[in-house]
Amino acid sequence: MHVLRGTPHTPLPRSALTIGNFDGLHCGHSAMLARLKAEAKARHLVSVVMTFEPHPRELFTPDSAPARLTSLREKIELLREAGIDYLIVQHFNRSFASIDALTFRDHIVARQLNAQLVLVGDDFQFGAKRSGDFNLLAASSDFETYSLPTLKQDGERVSSTAVRLALQSGQMAHAAKLLDRPYSIAGRVVGGDRLGREFGFPTANIQLKHNKPPLFGIFIVEVLGLDRTYQGVASLGFRPTIHGGDIKPKLEVHLFDFNRDIYRQHLRVNFLAKLRDEEKYPDFDTLIAQIQKDCDQARAWFAAR
Q: Which of 87, 164, 218, 283 has the fewest other C-beta atoms within 10 Å?
């Protein structure tokens, strides 16, 4: 997959294009990408995804912007796994946001991206102040335009918002169904304060790309990126018992039956089930006893699976 930062200076090969944020790459996105690839293959076109960084709401309303389900790196990897030919990562700033809908359609979509076919969701809007919609896109004589109806599961609309709500409420199995995979966070192991080792539960501290994760609490997890998949428990939050709590959230993972130095390795943490919310304990002994209970519960969960 070719990854381009911004629209190309020379037109792409004749393309089948879809445009969106694709946060989380859920089942609805997967259906869109499968249709895009099928249309591209039938017409001898390259498949192209255009996405935005940062999320537009992070630019306009940063305080109320939704929590990211995937970092840009994770999104790129998921789109690569999906078999897309070209990914356009468009830097979303106020200059780009000011482009009017007709210019976006006729200059960027039709010329720079050389779209012969455009496939979008049924609620797609584009251009300055979201003034363009499917009808304006379809009015172009330069390319064919199709919309894909929203995918539903058991009557529920599959969306990034639905995934976030499932994660926030601890419904990990439901989130996994919407995503067609366990929800995961990937990142590099960074240095920590080594308190976990002192407590008898050494942890890998995973660097978070954003300070607003979509879930908090104590979780049963599996960890990929080492010699095999490891089981464990993870804490994602502010550690209220440790020195009064952290300013930024931390992801700490204790791997069962593992005691090696994995500093700076890149790991993926799959969140399988939620054990509980974070709590503030009166002392470290009470915290250590609770961590042991969490580990016992997680081991029992894996044994019963």
A: 283
